[in-house]
Automatic annotation (TrEMBL):
GO terms for molecular function: hydrolase activity. Keywords: Hydrolase. It holds the Pfam family Abhydrolase_1. It comes from Actinoplanes aureus. InterPro entries: AB_hydrolase_1, AB_hydrolase_fold, AB_hydrolase_sf, Epox_hydrolase-like. Residues 24-271 form the AB hydrolase-1 domain. The keyword Hydrolase applies. GO terms for cellular component: membrane. This is Alpha/beta hydrolase. SUPFAM superfamilies: alpha/beta-Hydrolases.
Amino acid sequence: MQGVTKRDGIRIVYEVNGDADRTIVLLPAWMITNRRMWAAQVEALAPRFRTVTFDARGSGESDRPLDPAAYDPAELVQDLTAVLDATGTGEALLVGNSLGGLVGCLAAAGNPDRVAGLALIGPTVDVTGVRPSPLQLAMARFDDELGSDQGWARYNRHAWDRDFPGFVEWFVTTALGAEGTAETRAEGISWGLDNSPEVLAATVAARSRTGLAEQAAQMRQVVRAIRCPALVLTGDADRICPPYWSRTLAATMGARYVEVSGGHCTHVTRPAEIAELISSFAAEVWR
């Protein structure tokens, strides 16, 4: 079943599969992709759980505002709450990859009655604030003219103006890692090219206003407030969110930590393995 909810004039498109009593919400990642990235997980999980996916604002079939303020993480959390309400979901297990992991943490800390458990896959959550990652360095220099369109210099407003398709191909390939197939790369690239550099630039601006140490301090407070069971998964070759982020996050929140072979999007490249980990964790949560 597909539906639409609207918050502050912005349409959010969601999809519900399965009719079990327990609900798993597969959260959107960064807006370079859309809810279809969870297709393999929905197929594996829907026979046992009710699954909810949705296109984040700025992606897929949802509306795409250009104001950076529209992409503040707090706005994304409120969109999640709107989807929970629209789908009649009182409580859910949240699964978040990348930016979705950040949204999941904020939701679990701020609205604990709605979150039964939290499964994070390569979450964009750095509680160390010590050693900037390539992603953090790129976000800090996003508006600078770097004079290069190679590697992480592609994650840059000016590079996008010159060669946005080249950036999308590089980012998708980097995120999927060595296990990405020709099919998964082609799908990811097509989803990225469905968006625009203007929308993605607004999403970057919304998250690059605070210093590294301050961001980490804020996130430590958030994760220490989380009381639900949590599982943190990471690929050992994740080049977007380094594995030490996830290891430190799991230790900080007292979560179970699992490291598997692969890159940033193991739910795409190792779908059966990740679906079984999510399913087993859900069974523990709702035992």
